[in-house]
Design brief:
By secondary structure, this protein is an alpha/beta fold. It has 2 domains: about 180 residues, Rossmann fold; about 100 residues, Rossmann fold (3-Layer(aba) Sandwich), CATH 3.40.50.1980. It is about 45% helix and about 10% strand. Helix 2 crosses helix 6 and helix 3 packs across helix 4. The chain is globular, with a radius of gyration of 21 Å. The chain starts with a helix and ends with a helix. Bound molecules: zinc ion. Zinc ion binds next to loops.
Length: about 300
């Protein structure tokens, strides 16, 4: 009993002592937050700026973001201009020299891996929101292991005392992904394909050879016209697949397309839950894999 009580007391002391963490980290998204938890565990005091239901292309700067950035040792962003509308002004307002782009305290996931859509797709002139390449790298588990290792090295640079712990965290995340890959590959081997709203989950589809059958938006960031949707319906008529859209993407066109084709339209977050760690991220991909495999 006494032992149990002292354990509870110890736990309370640890919980109360926020300064036990060695790095004050701000992640822009839940996927980046999950990666920080996987790599750093308790060594990072973490703030995540956007919940899983928010569109990272379109966030507004909030005072709470600036406050979080002011004391941060490290910012972990997805990058490739995904957060360009709000992160640079928030960082500028925070006036924290350590986290300026180019400094060790500023980390972009997309800068660690090769990007899809680099150089822009053919219709870039029509208004592409991804001019430097597709930023949605967090949907590829293999790229995420490369990013985890790079993040561990960056954290080791900022907090040398934790170097071994960060590298262990990254390696343990990498082996968890490694273990999951064969199962995901088998589950998706005969997947018919997916219609996305936006080209956001293309890294996941490409990793497993799942066809992207179309996107609901004709031009990134612009709602589709009726004519475009009719053409898409005609193109996909008689085929099998599933439509997947994010919570912040308008469901109307997705549901109409689903009705016209006799398919399912599934609302699925592009991000894991706010409190997700490495395992939460893998569970998030499990949900995507199951949804893609359900298309028929
Ligand atoms: Zn995008």
């Amino acid at each position: 009993m006494l032992k149990r009580l002292s354990f509870v007391l110890m736990s309370l002391i640890c919980l109360g002592n926020a300064s036990a963490a060695s790095l004050d980290v701000v992640a822009t998204s839940p996927s980046m937050g999950a990666l920080v938890r996987a790599v750093a565990g308790d060594r990072a005091a973490l703030r995540v700026l956007a919940g899983p239901d928010r569109d990272l292309h379109q966030l507004q700067v909030k005072p709470s973001m600036i406050r979080a950035l002011r004391s941060a040792d490290l910012v972990v962003a997805i990058g490739a201009e995904l957060e360009i509308g709000w992160l640079p002004p928030a960082i500028a307002s925070a006036a924290n020299p350590s986290i300026q782009p180019g400094r060790a305290g500023y980390f972009e996931a997309a800068a660690q891996v090769p990007l899809l859509d680099a150089g822009g797709p053919a219709d870039r002139a029509l208004g592409d929101v991804h001019p430097v390449g597709n930023p949605h790298v967090d949907m590829d588990p293999a790229r995420m292991t490369t990013i985890a290792r790079a993040l561990a090295e960056r954290m080791a640079q900022l907090d040398p005392g934790g170097a071994a712990a960060y590298r262990r965290g990254a390696e343990s995340f990498a082996s968890a992904v490694e273990q999951r890959l064969p199962g995901w590959r088998a589950r998706l081997a005969n997947a018919h394909g997916v219609v996305l709203y936006h080209r956001d989950a293309i890294y996941l589809l490409e990793r497993f050879g799942v066809p992207l059958l179309g996107t609901i938006e004709a031009v990134p960031g612009v709602p589709p016209s009726g004519r475009y949707l009719s053409e898409l319906t005609a193109k996909l008529s008689g085929k099998d697949g599933v439509i997947i859209y994010a919570p912040y993407q308008a469901p109307k066109a997705a549901n109409k397309l689903a009705r016209d084709l006799g398919w399912q339209a599934v609302r699925l977050s592009l991000e894991p839950p706010l409190k997700a760690d490495g395992n939460g991220y893998l569970a998030h991909l499990d949900a995507w894999v199951e949804t893609i495999a359900s298309g028929r």
